[in-house]
Design a protein that fits this description.
The chain contains four helices and four strands; from the N terminus they run αβαβαββα. By secondary structure, it is of the alpha+beta class. GO terms for molecular function: RNA binding.
Length: 117
């Protein structure tokens, strides 16, 4: 399970306001197909909301902890019947590596003006 600082958790909670639940956990609980769907959603989105159709808060809390342990994710929020979990996506970390600024001074290209050609 990933651990988040309070500042990271607060920033992720702010991002969840516009999200809709992508997976629902029904009376059947955490069956294998539900866990696979949550794993796929985390892989593509990173930050997801899950709706739990169970009235017992302790059961919902157990679902949150179990999912985070099984899927190597971080619990962000449990409010009412909504769970929010986060896991960094491989695509976003690759994009961050590609979007680093390039030092243009090290380029050895020489540009000629149209009059010099």
């Amino acid at each position: 399970m990933l651990n988040l600082s309070s500042d990271e958790r607060r920033a992720l909670r702010a991002r969840t306001h516009s999200l809709h639940p992508v997976v629902s956990i029904s009376h059947r609980g955490l069956c294998e197909s539900v866990v696979k769907e949550i794993d796929a959603s985390l892989a593509s989105h990173g930050l997801i909301k899950i709706r739990v159709y169970h009235d017992d808060r302790e059961v919902r809390e157990d679902f949150l902890l179990t999912l985070c342990e099984q899927l190597d994710a971080a619990p962000v929020q449990h409010i009412g019947k909504l769970l929010v979990i986060w896991r960094p996506t491989a695509e976003k970390s690759a994009q961050a590596a590609r979007s680093r600024p390039v030092d243009r001074r090290s380029s050895k290209r020489s540009y000629q003006s149209s009059s010099e050609r």
